[in-house]
Fold this protein.
Amino acid sequence: MQKALQIVFYNVDNFFDPLDAAHTLDEDFTPTGRKKWGEYRYNQKVSKIAKTIAGIGEINPLAFVGLAEVETEQVCKDLIENQFLAPLNMGYIHRESSDVRGIDVALLYNKDLFSVESVAVHPVEIDIYQDHLTSRDILEVQGFLSGTPLRIFVNHWPSQRRRGNRKLRKRASDILKKRLKDLDLKSDHIVIMGDFNDNPDAPSLTFLKDYGFTNTLSSQWNENQGSLKYMRKWLLFDQIFLSSAFFESQDSISYESGQIYNPTKLQDPSGRNKAQPFRTFIGKNYIGGQSDHFPVLNQILSPKLLSKD
């Protein structure tokens, strides 16, 4: 029997370290800032995020985990060295972007299963109304998963709340589209994951279906379920797209299933936000949860890893 592996995407909700970086707007997330973000609260979040990721890995082994809203390389290092993740032999890839808040995307990967060949970043920027706007880079990682060539794109597209961000999302979509045109979309195993700040039916994402990608989470989205909730509506901004190669042969890595990972332990236990993702803060009030997003995941099968069953 083939062995199931897991690929995960998780927006970890303003995961800043407590240091005040010189060139980013992170002052709120410092010991003297509005959020009173000191070592204790930071270490609590490290442990809770690490425990969440490790808990997903108890279902089937983790292959890799895309992250959004990570401030620094140190955050990634602290995560993989935490007691919950240290036994899993994880590595990480993080690159600083020009995002004004200093939050980036990153990739954690299982060093026993995935070997990294190359890393590239694709900046997302646009001139609008004489302002030079920037957002998180798109992170591209190429490597081998259990011997199969694999390419991963980790995204965190601009939010819907600020002026010009719709055009920035269009810019991010165009950058990804241009990069994909250089690849063999029929034969290559390609994973596109991220917080797209758009639902599956948004125009910014529809081109991926035309390019042969399958949104493995769209069937999970309904009025009672999503990866986050805003203005009383469930949204599915966190998505994973797989190229056609995952569906065409059982002789290489193939898709098995996808889900929103929303166990009770990740839900707010009470009040008006009950059953929503358990946030770290509501406004400036610290409530001590993990994130305002649920993780999303795919199970994939590898013929080169055989289970004991």
Summary: The helical segments are 39-57, 73-81, 165-180, 206-210, 245-248.
